[in-house]
Amino acid sequence: DQQVKQNSPSLSVQEGRISILNCDYTNSMFDYFLWYKKYPAEGPTFLISISSIKDKNEDGRFTVFLNKSAKHLSLHIVPSQPGDSAVYFCAASGGTQGGSEKLVFGKGTKLTVNP
Amino acid sequence: NAGVTQTPKFRILKIGQSMTLQCTQDMNHNYMYWYRQDPGMGLKLIYYSVGAGITDKGEVPNGYNVSRSTTEDFPLRLELAAPSQTSVYFCATTGNTEAFFGQGTRLTVV
């Protein structure tokens, strides 16, 4: 039973355009959500997070939106750059801010940004 | 600070062999985790630890063992390697916010 779902295994966008990566979750106890970026042969690195008390969090070109009623979150990257090409994992936790609870990961979406 | 260090980076094992994947963190975090990532799949939690001397099973613990004798080290032990354990293994640690991952160990069991 997949609690965190990333239904698009891959996404391809043109440089300068917006990339939108989607994530759905089923567990209503999740209250903290994170996005990780992973390059080949490297470990995942933290990108951005959002608490369930918010519906939007922005950090430079990256914005995460949370729709709790739909149990859906999305990551927007604008403008997209070729260096953003990576696998993006959505993760969720039910507890304090994702630090002391187990993270549940989606399967990932491979983003390719074409020059 | 090195963050989270995993060794080895690559390993090929024969069926039935044993090995220990090492993980060390210098961030003084209490929480440490072992994940595996299979091709096309997300990260699945094998074991985790909330502090020295305390470990607990994750989603896929069968075939693995862990120990946590110090805050810094969280080794993962495979006693009888099986082809199903071919995967990339990631160790992670968390403070108050996000998790920090090591670079991974790519294990192939043949």
Summarize the model shown.
The complex is a heterodimer of chains A (115) and B (110). By secondary structure, chain A is mostly beta strands.
Alpha-carbon distance between the two ends of chain A? 38 Å
Portion in beta strands of chain B: over 45%
**Spans of at least 5 consecutive residues with low confidence of chain B:** none
Distance between the termini of chain B: 36 Å
Oligomer description: heterodimer
Number of helices of chain A: 0
Whole-angstrom Rg of chain B: 13 Å
Total helices of chain B: the number is 0
Helix content, binned percent of chain B: under 10%
> Which regions of chain A contain 5 or more consecutive residues with pLDDT less than 50?
none
Structural class by helix and strand composition of chain B: mainly beta
Description:
- The complex is a heterodimer of chains A (115) and B (110).
- Chain A is mainly beta and 115 residues long.
- Chain A starts with a strand and ends with a strand.
- In chain A, strands 2, 4, 5, 9, 10 and 11 form a six-stranded mixed beta sheet that branches. A five-stranded antiparallel beta sheet of chain A has the order 1-3-8-7-6, with no helix packed on it.
- Chain A contains no helices and eleven strands.
- Chain A is 0% helix and 52% strand.
- Chain B contains no helices and eleven strands.
- Chain B has strands at 4-7, 10-13, 19-25, 31-37, 43-51, 54-57, 64-66, 76-78, 87-94, 99-101, 105-109.
- In chain B, strands 2, 4, 5, 6, 9, 10 and 11 form a seven-stranded mixed beta sheet that branches. A four-stranded antiparallel beta sheet of chain B has the order 1-3-8-7, with no helix packed on it.
- In chain B, a hairpin with a 2-residue loop joins strand 5 and strand 6.
- The mean pLDDT of chain B is 93.
- The chains are: A mainly beta (115), B mainly beta (110).
- Chains A and B meet through strand 5 and strand 10 of A and strand 4, strand 5, strand 9 and strand 10 of B.
